[in-house]
Structures are given as structure tokens and as C-alpha cells.
Amino acid sequence: MCVADYDRQHLKYLDVPSMRIPTLKHFYFYQLVYPVALFFVKASILALYHRIFERLQFRYKVWSVAAFVTIYTIVVLFVSVSSLLCFIWK
Q1: Cα–Cα distances in Å, from 25 out to 19, 68, 73, 87?
Q2: How far apart are CA 78 and CA 11, in angstroms?
Q3: Among 13, 37, 64, 70, which has the highest number of CB atoms less than 10 A from its own CB?
């Protein structure tokens, strides 16, 4: 089910319990996709900086920020997956 299925309908005519499960599925999907999308945006900006600036010290800083962003994204994904698994097991 999609949000467009419930467009322009009054709340009393909607089957709210049947809407909860698709909404939660979309929420958890977005919770997993959003950090990955942010990672690619940040990585592309860091790649641009790495290509533009040629000083070695600045490139070390770019690599360190890239490592931090990668580790942060992995941690956020693990936390999101574990919260999803905890919700499923209840």
C-alpha cells in the first residue's frame, strides 16, 4: 500500500490498523537507506576536495575525515539493523 491510496479521504473512513504495517515498513526502509545516501554525498564531496587540493597535509585530513564518515555510517547501519531486529523479535 502506498500513501496515495489514502489520499483525500477522511480519517474515519480509513482502516488505520491496516495502514500501520506498511508505514512501519517504509520507516525502517528509509532508516536503512538514508545513512547510505548521506555517506555517498559526503564521500563525493571529500573526493572533490581530494582532487582539487594537492597539498599532502590536506589530503591526509581528507582521508581521516573519510575514515570517520565511513566508520560512522557503518555504526549507524548496525544500530538501525539491530533496532529493526529487536522490533521483529518482540
Answers
A1: 10, 29, 21, 12
A2: 36
A3: 70
Condensed to tens digits (0 to 9), the pLDDT of residues 49-62 reads: 999 999 999 999 99
What type of residue sits at position 79?
Answer: V
List, in order, residues 6 or more apart from 76 with CB less than 8 Å away: 35
The Cα-based distances of 78 to 26, 49, 71, 88 in angstroms read 18, 28, 11, 15
For residue 1, pLDDT over 50 is answered with no
Question: For the chain, how many helices (H) and strands (E)?
Answer: 2, 0
Select from 67, 69, 64, 62 the least CA-distant residue to 46.
62
Task: Check if the beta carbon of residue 53 is closer than 8 Å to that of residue 59.
Answer: yes
The three cell numbers locating residue 47: 573526493
